[in-house]
Amino acid sequence: MTMAESQILPDSAAIPRSVYEISRLSKTYARNRLVALTDVNLTLREGEFVSVIGSSGCGKSTLLKIMSGLMPPTSGRVTLEGKPVTGTRADIGMMFQQATLLPWMTTIENIVLPIEIRQGKSAARAARARAQELLDLVGLGDFAHVYPGELSGGMAQRASICRMLITRPAVLLLDEPFSALDELTRDFMNMELQRICHETRATAFLVTHSLAEAVILSDRILVMKPRPGRIVEEVVIPLPRPRTLEMINTPEFGRIVAHIRDLLGKEAEQ
Amino acid sequence: MTDTVSDDLPDTVWIEKTSWIDAMPRWLAMSLLFIAVVTLWDLVTRWGWVSPIILPSPAETLADLIFVGRNLITGDYMLGALWTTTKTVFFGFLIAASIGFLLGVLVGETKFGERAVMPYLVAIDTMPKVAFAPLFIAWLGFDIASKVALAAFIATFPIVVATAAGLYAASENERMLFKSMGATRMQTLLRLKLPTGLPYMFTGLKIAAVGVMAGAITGEFLGGGKGFGALIRQSASQMDTPRVFALILYLSLLGLLLYFTVVWAQRKFVFWNKDQRPGALG
Ligand SMILES: Nc1ncnc2c1ncn2[C@@H]1O[C@H](COP(=O)(O)OP(=O)(O)OP(=O)(O)O)[C@@H](O)[C@H]1O
Ligand SMILES: [Mg+2]
Prior knowledge:
By secondary structure, chain A is of the alpha/beta class. Chain A has helices spanning 2-6, 60-67, 107-111, 113-119, 121-126, 128-137, 153-165, 183-200, 211-217, 251-269, and strands at residues 18-29, 34-45, 49-53, 75-80, 83-84, 92-95, 171-175, 203-208, 220-225, 230-236.
């Protein structure tokens, strides 16, 4: 059944060019000689939304850190827009599990921080208008000048989305960005994320624990298996875009979720 | 219409019980304790349980407090002594804060500092630092400089340790955030690690404020000079215990002033730190 579904790709359009290319990637943590990743190969195409799903400790965060240039691989090759990744770059936007807003700066100051760090104070001042637009977009327009201590968890996470978007990154790397949120907020944020990715034509790579979240957002889902961490399956999600929350109740959605749960279950048994 | 609770029922507003000992306002709690201690003190001296040379009565002490207070207000020799000690404490604190901060950054930010400098600092810190007083006097003379040096010497170490600990305090996530923004080491230090470490540094400064007082007075005990410590020693050698008590009380005001200046600065600069519990005097 998956093979049939896998063939549903945007047929008439030419295949978009690849943005990220990862080949034969391995990572062994020197400290404990732990093999976190072996032989990971993947390609991300422009505008694509790809999720990674897998049990805890299977190396998802490690993969993301290597892709973003936060950490070097032990072997293998990572290129972004044709250039090898050998450090962090301005065209990558990252979002972590925690919002990590700095408590001594107001929300809007936090959001323009990436600009300030890379381009200085005057560029940051110039970016404030755009920061305010982004805040309005995620419904935090009135909270630009409060300190993060006064934001709820979901509001802080929305603010950190704005901080990621302020530099207009071509690629978004998201490490369980919404796992700390309640389910309603999470659904809302997921739809926001889809809209943002669509509008900015950004390529997104999402690590998640939630099957439903992965299915509703992704064009493709990569299933990882631990010890040593590797990608064992790729599932193409044939649901049409734009996705809506109502799709969660369709039989097709249920079938896809069941299929991936099956794959994950099989991994767990081995 | 759905079933709703009838509006005639009274609101269930109730008052959380607090025991009377927790409900006391601070002024009352402090006054009560003060009265209790002074009464006990008065009884002990009145009934002759302790010799007046060891413990003067509250009345005698009060008389001396007034005498010393008058002397200070009229700008007599005691004010000069207090001024000398104040200068010693001030400069000692300033030097300790500057050197302590710089060493703390060296230790907390560079591997060299952590590996090479820190072990020596720990070794020196475990020594009884007061034992260095004769050295400082030999090097710097009987004037204020030797006392400043001892005070600064004692107060530096808590600031080094606190600053270094503060620089380690930024979380892994915050460090990754700065790295992913392409921040330089200097930017990470200035924009992330130092602000994160500020609460730690203020804790170090508070410990240093106490240490600098002890250092200044010890220096004046051992090295003479014109400070308050010398006055206390003189009065003690004359068995004038009420005077010693009175001088110590005035001296403690200087310590309190320094301490609460630090607390005030902390409130002002670390405005975001919500986990400072109220009532703990900062
Ligand atoms: N800095 C490190 N040093 C040594 N081992 C590490 C380090 N970071 C992670 N590991 C190990 O590498 C493996 C993969 O970790 P990773 O954080 O990538 O997992 P994950 O898939 O993101 O898990 P989770 O879903 O719980 O976040 C784990 O076994 C972990 O113990
Ligand atoms: Mg992880």
